[in-house]
Amino acid sequence: MSRVDNNLSSIVEEIADEMKSRPDRGDVATYIPELANVDPDCFGLTVIDAHGEVFSGGDSDMAFSIQSISKVFTLTLALGIVGDRLWRRVGREPSGNPFNSIVQLEMERGVPRNPFINAGAIAVTDVLVSGHQPREALGQIVRFMQFLADDASIGIDHAVAASEKRTGFRNTALANYMKSFDVIENLVDFTLGVYFHHCAIAMTCRQLAMAGRYLAHSGRNPTTGLSVVSPERARRINALMLTCGHYDGSGEFAYRVGLPGKSGVGGGIFAIAPGKASIAVWSPGLDKSGNSHLGRIALEKLTKRTGWSIFGA
Amino acid sequence: MSRVDNNLSSIVEEIADEMKSRPDRGDVATYIPELANVDPDCFGLTVIDAHGEVFSGGDSDMAFSIQSISKVFTLTLALGIVGDRLWRRVGREPSGNPFNSIVQLEMERGVPRNPFINAGAIAVTDVLVSGHQPREALGQIVRFMQFLADDASIGIDHAVAASEKRTGFRNTALANYMKSFDVIENLVDFTLGVYFHHCAIAMTCRQLAMAGRYLAHSGRNPTTGLSVVSPERARRINALMLTCGHYDGSGEFAYRVGLPGKSGVGGGIFAIAPGKASIAVWSPGLDKSGNSHLGRIALEKLTKRTGWSIFGA
Amino acid sequence: MSRVDNNLSSIVEEIADEMKSRPDRGDVATYIPELANVDPDCFGLTVIDAHGEVFSGGDSDMAFSIQSISKVFTLTLALGIVGDRLWRRVGREPSGNPFNSIVQLEMERGVPRNPFINAGAIAVTDVLVSGHQPREALGQIVRFMQFLADDASIGIDHAVAASEKRTGFRNTALANYMKSFDVIENLVDFTLGVYFHHCAIAMTCRQLAMAGRYLAHSGRNPTTGLSVVSPERARRINALMLTCGHYDGSGEFAYRVGLPGKSGVGGGIFAIAPGKASIAVWSPGLDKSGNSHLGRIALEKLTKRTGWSIFGA
Amino acid sequence: MSRVDNNLSSIVEEIADEMKSRPDRGDVATYIPELANVDPDCFGLTVIDAHGEVFSGGDSDMAFSIQSISKVFTLTLALGIVGDRLWRRVGREPSGNPFNSIVQLEMERGVPRNPFINAGAIAVTDVLVSGHQPREALGQIVRFMQFLADDASIGIDHAVAASEKRTGFRNTALANYMKSFDVIENLVDFTLGVYFHHCAIAMTCRQLAMAGRYLAHSGRNPTTGLSVVSPERARRINALMLTCGHYDGSGEFAYRVGLPGKSGVGGGIFAIAPGKASIAVWSPGLDKSGNSHLGRIALEKLTKRTGWSIFGA
């Protein structure tokens, strides 16, 4: 059995200190121009344990663009609205490799492989748009994040949203392609508009770790006692994060870190240790799979020192 | 939190009884002619807890062809021999969809995506063959299974091995394809011969659950205290089982069952609950992804009643 | 050597009569709603020989939507503007199968395989849009068709163009996908707008056969003597029509008909017999590859009776 | 009309002289070790006109490995045996890109796209093996080549055949893969053995041009009057050569040369000008698509000077 160091406070600080000074920092995403301006030296880490105690290190109170991490929360919302009918429009299997996004859409007639690849997340967003004006649908998502994090200051970085909209030709291609198979119900521009904006939500590590506590604790916030989803649904969202949460680096993340998590190209990673902690880490430099380079290393160190891997001590 | 019923004995019995009588049993694999002869009414289940106590139900002492489950053990052996150099020849990512086996081999120049798809398992077997006669390599694998299960009666069903060899054109294609990229070092016939034979190892649920206990308990048998692999390697093999252990039904298995596991087309599934139990289930009828239909349902019921899901209570 | 019947007039009439009454007529395209309204009983055929003599049968003076046949003429125009630089943006190889359109775009970084698949034709249209307002670019294309056919009455069916624009999600996907690789220079909406409109040009068989005479006669109209392209360029456009002109039925068309040609989902086919004739045929019902069912059969009969196959007498 | 220079004798000589001395010679194939030993400075060209007059230049009497060019003749034989039933086992469409060989086999359930890609040619060879011992089947092929070329000295280069057999893992993969779909009827080793050997037939340019005269002249040798196939079948084989004869460089060959032809990795190209000539060219260096670099250039010069392009003067 691996030695477990329970002094979370010092673990978090030591990891943050080490990460702040490492020379290997990955490459900041450039395909969304606004994201390219972020300082690659940033590093933040927040761990919130089962008692609600918050352990933070580094730039844990700097807001960053959560990008694809938002997909965990839009999935939670969409499941609340349509339940298991969601799975008619999106699958639950890992996507395999980067080519698959669109190759697979062609073979499987417009049904994306899982809700965490871009195509799948656009299909999930489309569920939230149905019956609403885009502005309303987006408001609902933002208020959900504010509610979960108990922080009304959370909002959208409109410069990032506009930047993504101007350059998001590939996502526009995916959405139109799904529309050609009737997998998208609403106007492509409406659904994409909401998608680009919820990806542009800005949050700090602290806010993000707070917002995701329900997934670490059987679907509810253990401090307030408020239930967000059923225990079974929380487990299932966690299973999806484990198998599909890191693009084509999902296997690698499970292998090295051993926690369910979701990354975003803004450099953030949200992860949970079931029953133990909700975790958010941020470092803008990415590895070749598009996941935060130091974020992943920090989480690997964290699970080693805490023994939190879901795959055994 | 879900209610956990700790009376394992009655849980196992009740599940086995229910499964024995269910009318929906899936379809017995026909592509290996010998496997088509197995009685679809069979159902066996064995759970061995951390104290070594054995709970069994149904046909848990009937031997079946473990098929792809053997890949967990050949992976363990190969990692023991070449360590992380193994990953030069095989990846660690889910394969996405059934087409990928060979499409992906073409795109990634003969390197299979993970050690649990057929191509990857053949590459792993090739490691075991290097420096040996095929007969020796095979003997080593069988003795490893006997050692792990503490049962010298475990052996190979030669009729199944011969049947697979006669009809294994697709595996022969995969092996030759990898050979064309120099991913296979030995004579294709040698490596395939060993592969077909270790897939034809016959074991009971009881033997299989016993053999796999090291993966549930940080790399060692908690009863004998003998260490098989390091705790880190055990966690990593478990992570691979979770993300890649059930062909293109791996996401579904994680979503519904929430345990690392490996299935075989003989209808067996091996799974572990970290720190808690080693589990083997067998029912010959398969679902459309090639995994045991009732085996998966039985494990889903087991994790629900025990609260063993690695994704939360 | 096959017997050649030089009485073109009776050959054309007999083929048209037989085709008008055949019960097997294929299926009218439904994916562009406006096209679904066309009467499947229509059949027209025009052959113009080297002396400019016109032989027509059936509904050769009814206008139909030329759709993809327009790609031959936009290619001619684009080569006139940018010459061989065009081939930096589009390839010259057959596309293989219907899946390839988008799979291949992914593998080859947004460069379409040839100018006659949709993606390639959109890239060609983009060349015509550069430096112009969409309306100007479209005007240039229409005037080119009027000039070639010596008929100022040729125009666009705006109902078809609007219908295609409303439902052209797949083409919108392709264009955005290429834009993400910088293969499209102009605003996607501009280039697609021109594309949808030039596909909606309406012409009769007589007009179409007249317009394409330059390809049958070394790049120039043998009656007026006006040169449209060089002899080498005419040969090369013909080669592209032969290898790529009929989607994934191009091999079949070469095998059965043996003439360079280009089909459209409106049911038209334009073909040439080098040095001998310019041909247009129209019947709205399509085969499974999207080519006119009776159009192809009529051309097969025509080449058999005339001995015009480019592959030998 | 382009100016045609009828002095074939001087054209052939001038082209051969120029090619002998050009510095750009492509790269000799290395994947079959025996082929790597061929002198890259070799160049041979033979043209036989409709009267049977032979025009040769360079090393036109040196034998080379015809490799894939043999597929034209095995296709002719197989069509003679099973007729159009052949098309149940192999398609008639271009294969698109190099990836397609095996990807496409997976999607289309083991039916190769055309008889000139390796998989398709193996399926054609399988037809010739059925009902025979491999040795007999091979004898039949060799005697057919001897008959067509009227030269009993034509034989197999056994060193090349053995070399290909030792290293032909990819072809072994393809054959086993098709066997798994029942597209191959005979023992894989038998069919592959015959395939490897007929690819290793050695011929000179003169012999090859002689052997293929029937394809230039409506299915029969115009000098002896002996009919090999019907005019329609000759045209159809020519159409297949045009659309599929040069791997994924088929479109390029049609575009630049404009003649039906078939290349081999030994550096030979066989081509015909319908009604006019049978042509063989050989230069061992290949371009990136695997076709003879100088061979293609020589043919491009030949069609320019003779006006023989099937796509117009």
Would you give an account of this structure?
Four copies of one chain form a homotetramer. With 313 residues, chain A is an alpha+beta fold. Chain A has two domains: 161 residues, DD-peptidase/beta-lactamase superfamily (Beta-lactamase), CATH 3.40.710; 132 residues, DD-peptidase/beta-lactamase superfamily (Beta-lactamase), CATH 3.40.710. The first copy, chain A, is built from 13 helices and ten strands. In chain A, strands 3-2-9-8-7 form a five-stranded antiparallel beta sheet. A three-stranded antiparallel beta sheet of chain A has the order 4-6-5. In chain A, strand 7 and strand 8 form a beta hairpin. In chain A, helix 2 packs across helix 4. Chains A and B meet through helix 3, helix 11 and helix 12 of A and helix 3, helix 11 and helix 12 of B.
Stretches with pLDDT under 50, minimum 5 residues of chain A: 1-5
Structural class of chain A: alpha+beta
The radius of gyration over CA of chain A amounts to: 18 Å
Shape of chain A: globular
Estimate nothing, just give the exact number of structural domains of chain A.
2
